[in-house]
Structure formats: structure tokens, C-alpha cells
Amino acid sequence: MPNDNDYILTLSCPDKPGIVHAVTAVFAAHGHNVLDLQQFSDPASRRFFMRVHFGPKAGAVTAEHLARPFDELAAAYEMAYDIRPVAQKMKVLIMVSKIGHCLNDLLFRMKTGQLKMEVPVIVSNHADYEPLAASYGIEFHHLPVTKDTKAQQEARVLELVRRHGIELVVLARYMQVLSPTLCEAMSGRIINIHHSFLPSFKGAKPYHQAYERGVKIIGATAHFVTADLDEGPIIEQRVARVDHSMGPQELVEEGSNVESQVLAAAVRWYADRRVFLNGSKTVVFG
């Protein structure tokens, strides 16, 4: 079990010999105990990924003393790295439209401690979930959007991101296509839940598409958002079996459970610093 005094190091860089030795040598030299280490070398992208859970240095109240040695490693290995306290909860902005099961699920898991995150603000293009936000003490912003007002609406979203120090935006069945401007501004920091097993049945009404094709399995996909609709790097997918007797609405009802599970898993892994972008794919440490 992680201790609130522990830390998480995440890093990625071009793959080459000596990275693990160099990283663990820093911990040893500064009196830190490595509690868990996961790594992956991708032969296709030739990139190296690592997540390290390590304990505090005796007598130290922060990990600031590690900044200089890791800055030196970053320069030597062309490395991007981050060190966060385990106790630091990720700040998440949730966007939703009129379908609320994923929003409900995320808020319940946050309240019960299953998700280590803080949700300071919820944004919706409809006002339906303002009472739900209020019941959790969360700021709610009703920001309607049309083709003519999308730029202004998304500018307000970005202002909320800056104001609240948001690290992740979650589209919990937010049924609007984000502009390339917003996708670029939050690249690698927006997770969407799509109600199909991508790459099958992209776009609108995937359950109806699945019904027309007579599928025997439906699914849900949590992925990073890019300017290309439903094409972002996939984080998690799960499925449920269906049969010929089920109509489109029954597929929707069956799929909603899968959607909630998949989105919660993706958000949990991201909040735990287990998800890394690797080109058009992801690395997810379990």
C-alpha cells in the first residue's frame, strides 16, 4: 500500500543502455528506498518508459534535493521526468452533456476514495447536472455551445483550467467535438469515453451501428482526445456480450455499465501516473 509520504517518479526518453542504473544510483546516493519499479523499452519507437514508487529520505520533508541530479540526468538522456508526492491529488475538470452515468460514477468513486483526484469544477453545455455538482460542493459552469460560439466557450473552459490548476480534463459523455485549438492546448491531458470498441463504430450512435451489424460483443474505449475524432491513443477497453434478441436501447443500457468501468479505470491510472503517451499508442503500467 502506498504511503502518503512516498513519491512517484515518471520518465520517458530515447532508449539506450544505462538508464535504470543511472536512475537507481540517484536514489541510492540520496538515501531513498525504491519500493516498486516498472519499465518498458519499445523496440518500435525506441523509447524508454519508467515509473518508480520510492520512499522519503530520512529527515527530509520534500524531494526537492532530487531536482538537481534528475535535471542532470534529463540533460544527459534527453529525458522528460516528473516527481510527485503520492498524497498529491490530481485536479480534474469534468465535462458532461445530458447523459450522466459516467459523471455519477466518477464522483461517487472520488467521494469513497477509489479515485485519488480532486474535482473543483464541472462544465456542461446543459444545466441538468448543476444540482448533482452542488450536492458534492463542486463549482458548476453551464456553458452552452453552438457552431458560432464554440471558440468563446472553449476559451472559457481553458480559463477554468488555468484558474483551478487543472491537470486533466475528462469528457464524461460530453457530446461535442472539441476544436483543434483546445485539443492542442490540452494535448495528452484530455480523456474521452467512447461508447464502442474502437476502431469499430466511430462517431454518433455507435450502439445503433452495432445493432445494425448484429454484433455479439459491444464495448467502450477510453482514449486521449486529438483533433481527429475518436482516433486518439487508447488507454483502456472492455467488452460485454450481447445477443440477437437485444434492441438498440438494450445495447445502450448494457453498454453504460462498461463505459463507467472503462472511464474510471483510465482516470485512476492517469491519476496514479501510470499512463504514458507513446506516439499513437500508450504505455500503461498496471
From TrEMBL:
Transmembrane segments annotated in the record for this chain: none
Residues spanning the signal sequence: none
Repressor as UniProt keyword: no
GO biological process, alphabetically ordered: 'de novo' IMP biosynthetic process; amino acid metabolic process; carboxylic acid biosynthetic process; one-carbon metabolic process
Keyword Hydrolase: yes
InterPro entries given in the database record: ACT-like_dom_sf, ACT_dom, Formyl-FH4-Hydrolase_C, Formyl_transf_N, Formyl_transf_N_sf, PurU, PurU_ACT
CDD domains linked to this entry: ACT_F4HF-DF (cd04875), FMT_core_Formyl-FH4-Hydrolase_C (cd08648)
Database matches in HAMAP family: PurU
Protein name: Formyltetrahydrofolate deformylase
